[in-house]
Amino acid sequence: MDGSVRLDEVVMRFGDFTAIEKTTLEIGSGEFFSFLGPSGCGKTTLLNMISGFLTPTEGRVWIGDEAMGKVSVNRRPTAMIFQNLALFPLMTVFENIEFGLEVRGVDKRTRREASEKLLALVALEGSGPKQIGELSGGQKQRVAIARALAVEPRVLLLDEPLSALDLKLRQHMRAELKAIQRKTGITFIYITHDQGEALTMSDRVAVMSAGRIQQVADPMTLYRSPATGFVAAFVGENNRLETRVIEREGQRVRLDAGNLGELAGMAGETVILGNGDRAALFLRPEHLKPIGEGDAGPRLSATIEAVHFEGAWVMLETRLEASGEKLRVQLGHEVSRQYADSLDIGQRMTFGYDPADAVVLPDDGSPVLDEDTGEMVETEQRAMPDGGSHA
Amino acid sequence: MLRQLQARFGGPLAMAILGLLGIWLILLVTLPQLQMIDYSFRPNLLPDQRGGPEDGWTLGNYATLLNNEIHRVIFFKTLWSSVLVTLLTLAVSYPLAWYLAKVATPRQAALCILLLIIPFWINEILRTYAWFIILAFRGPLNEVLMMLGLIERPIRFLSGDAGVMVGMVYAYILFMVFPVYNAIESLDDNQVRAARDLGAGTIRTHRRIVIPHAKPGIATGCIMTFMLAAGSYAVPALLGSPGSRWFTQIIYNWFFEGGNWNQGAAYAFLLLVLCIGFMSLVMRFFKVGLGDIAK
């Protein structure tokens, strides 16, 4: 059962608007693959092309070794779990799960056996005769999964199915989805704007923005070595400092950060950076730690503006003294206890980081994600590293 | 309800509104109907016999239908033909309602609805006459069919039930399209997509998902169409032939040609009772309640 999916130079246009730029991508059979991106980035369009609800303007979709060009929705080896689940409210749980089998002409007894087995898989034994309206949110979720699995799809498509659930249930369902995927060996293609979901469940994640795939990688690579500024800002939290390259030695890059002095970070081997080029330095809040007078390495002096106690860690909102830029710092439990006396608004602290943890990417002037509003901001509105003006 | 009205309009105005409503219901609806019921149970007497020994309540007028075979046949034929008209109207309206609700763009739907409504600005009699012309033996429809080579000689559309059927489907189509359209419109698109995704073809998607959802709307449309068809007078009178007489025409004859209001009232009530009985049977069969229809 080959559940691999291949997008072969697919393009999707609606009139003048290009929803998906030319995209080629291969998803392995049995993989848990996620598309992660903000709303409107085209991830749902991609999902609809795989399911057959949309036909790509150009290019082809393959499932296994079959081109899907002429295969209509109801004949594709895919099943979809909809964002609002789209359970049939006038049917019982049994009837919902068995619908796909009924369509295929499976006899009643075999159908019932199959749906009992699926109900056991999603831990809903005995709920078969219930009406959909009698179920809780989490139970509906499970019925939707069972209904989709009933048709024995080679590829299961999930369109943000957890977004309607509350936090605890969502976290629980993440683990459960992953377990079901492992048990069934079906290819899962998961759409989400929630990076937590994408990172915890997926084997690989494609980060999307504005109709383009920015990076395809396993979650750890995505987090540690983002390929573009968008990925660096969208996946996890990142402080972004604008700099110019002084000199590059292998992966290590020395940077001129204007008033902040000289800083350093790592650039991937494939990243092209010449001396004097504009570059963005990404520092994750958890990689910054308080340092003393004698410590070597990069130094960033800042004033604390807010302290958020999150339980396992403390998040500091600070402002860099030299440049006036914001810097978010996350201190682990131990460190925050050690510095408990100085964690107050208005206090000055000096932070350092290991340059091996800092990512340097070329600053091509493309829009960047504003951490505060969650929106993309154009270059003109941004602070310039040498100008010192702030939007 | 009284409290709501009082809160909104104040005591005197609320009383006035309720009073007017009461006058309308009692004086203009209930009393005339009671009068007709009273008529239907009394024999048709000359003015000077009224109040005399022969004037009393009797079932005679109702028995007439049982004893008159021709009237009985027309009575049941009217019911049966109304069922046919209802089914035909549904067959035409359902695809149209589906198109309007789920396929057409908002602009197309608006245009289509406008085109459906405009003919209804014209009087029913005039519209029916238009069909009379279209369906005539030497009319445009026969001409076109012959030109296309589909028939060799003209068809007498107006001599059987065909003309009446066509005229009625046309006359009552809006009463079917709108309730069905409203019902289909409220269906979540993802329901249809989910059914397709699970492998269902067009027919099964409609049979298992769309029609069950639209059932209250379909029932409403069917009840309205059936009631209107069974009570129709103009269409069978104009487009029908002696072979396709409607029961309403017989009621009309009792009132205005036979001059026997008592007999006419009895026939009218028989039609009403039978229609209501028939509709409640249909509603029970489709498991649709009055509440569903009120939606």
Automatic annotation (TrEMBL), chain A:
Pfam families linked to this entry: ABC_tran, TOBE_2
Record flagged with keyword Zinc: no
InterPro entries, alphabetized: AAA+_ATPase, ABC_SmlMolc_Importer, ABC_transporter-like_ATP-bd, ABC_transporter-like_CS, Mo/tungstate-bd_C_term_dom, P-loop_NTPase, Transp-assoc_OB_typ2
Any coiled-coil regions, as ranges: none
Gene Ontology MF: a single term: ABC-type transporter activity
Keywords: ATP-binding, Hydrolase, Nucleotide-binding, Transport
EC number: 3.6.3.31
A single cellular component GO annotation: ATP-binding cassette (ABC) transporter complex
SUPFAM superfamilies (alphabetical): MOP-like (SSF50331), P-loop containing nucleoside triphosphate hydrolases (SSF52540)
PROSITE patterns: ABC_TRANSPORTER_1 (PS00211), ABC_TRANSPORTER_2 (PS50893)
Domain ABC transporter, chain residue ranges per copy: 5-235
Name the UniProt record assigns to this protein: Spermidine/putrescine import ATP-binding protein PotA
Gene that produces this protein: potA_4
From TrEMBL, chain B:
Compartments in which it is found: Cell membrane
PROSITE patterns assigned: ABC_TM1 (PS50928)
Gene3D superfamilies for the chain: MetI-like
One cellular-component annotation, GO: plasma membrane
SUPFAM superfamilies on file: MetI-like
Name of a matching Pfam family: BPD_transp_1
Residues annotated as transmembrane: 12-31, 79-100, 163-184, 217-239, 264-286
InterPro entries hit by this protein: MetI-like (IPR000515), MetI-like_sf (IPR035906)
Keywords: Cell membrane, Membrane, Transmembrane, Transmembrane helix, Transport
ABC transmembrane type-1 domain ranges (all copies): 75-282
Primary localisation category: membrane
CDD domains to which the protein is assigned, alphabetical: TM_PBP2
Membrane topology: Multi-pass membrane protein
One biological process term in Gene Ontology: transmembrane transport
Stored PANTHER family: INNER MEMBRANE ABC TRANSPORTER PERMEASE PROTEIN YDCU-RELATED (PTHR42929:SF1), INNER MEMBRANE ABC TRANSPORTER PERMEASE PROTEIN YDCU-RELATED-RELATED (PTHR42929)
Family according to the record: Belongs to the binding-protein-dependent transport system permease family. CysTW subfamily.
Protein name, per record: Spermidine/putrescine transport system permease protein PotB
Organism of derivation: Halomonas lysinitropha
Native organism taxonomy: Bacteria, Pseudomonadati, Pseudomonadota, Gammaproteobacteria, Oceanospirillales
